[in-house]
Structure formats: structure tokens, C-alpha cells
Amino acid sequence: MLGKKRKLGKKIQDLKVGDCYTSSFSIEDKELLMYLGLTDDANPLYIQHDYASETPYTRPIVPSVMIFGKVSSIISMHLPGPGSHIFKQELDYPKPLFHYSEVKITAEISLIHKKDHYIDVVIIGYDEEGEEVVSGKVSVRPPYEPKSMNASSLENFY
User: Fold this and answer.
1) Using CA atoms, how far apart are residues 148 and 17, in angstroms rounded to an integer?
2) Parallel, antiparallel, or unpaired for β 102-113 and 20-26?
3) Contact 32, 47 (CB under 8 A)
4) pLDDT in tens, 138-149
């Protein structure tokens, strides 16, 4: 990523209520194993088919934090984009997400608080069966306008 020029995301003055972004993805074994290894999480509900088959879920599920990771990626890479920070989240996960399920998550700006420099973004996500797997909102600070374009911390941004 270093050496590659990237633009900062949209500043608060460039955003409007109703702006939205939608992303589709599925959680594959490699992402799941990387997460479990990184966090040292060995919950059998996430990885053991024999255990999961004995639960009401009937098969392994994706950790909710991985779904939130995709939400975070939408915010930090697309809406508002690089330089953004989620400082509050209120998300529900009404239905478990199973391995390999196709998910579509939409983020839509619902409120802009210019004075306090943050936005509220409504999140809704559905699996391929059209069932809700995540819903709620996140509060986000969009990128700040740099004080100096000569700052060395911005050498990879323009």
C-alpha cells in the first residue's frame, strides 16, 4: 500500500443524506481461518461441522465480528472512505450467516452532524435467501481536511 497514491475519502461538506454504497461478498474458509488464527478463537460453532450439526444452527456459522469487519471496510474504503473512523456501532445480527453464503450489505447516510463532525450511517445486510443478517447504524467521523498538504503523513495520499 505504501508508495501507491490514494485519495482521502469524502469530507463532511461533500456528503449528503441518502448517499449509499452496496457491497456483496461471501466468507470463504481462508478468511475464516485467518480470523480465528489471528484472534486465537477456537469456538467449535465456527469451525466444527460435527458440533454445529448438533446445535439449532445445524452447520458452522460466521462470527458476527467478521460481518462487522465487512461493514467497517465499506466505511473506511468507500463511504465516506479512507481517513474515516467508526466511533459507535449499534448493530443486530438477527439470523446467523453460514459459511460461503453470499451477502449484500448496504450503507446509507441518514444524518449529518456538521457541527460535531460525524455522520450516522444505516446498515442493512441480507443473505442470498433475502433474510436479514445485519441491521442497525454506525456513527462515523469522515476524513478531516489536512492542515498542511506538505505533511509527511500524507505522502501516500493526495
Assistant:
1) 29
2) antiparallel
3) yes
4) 999 999 988 765
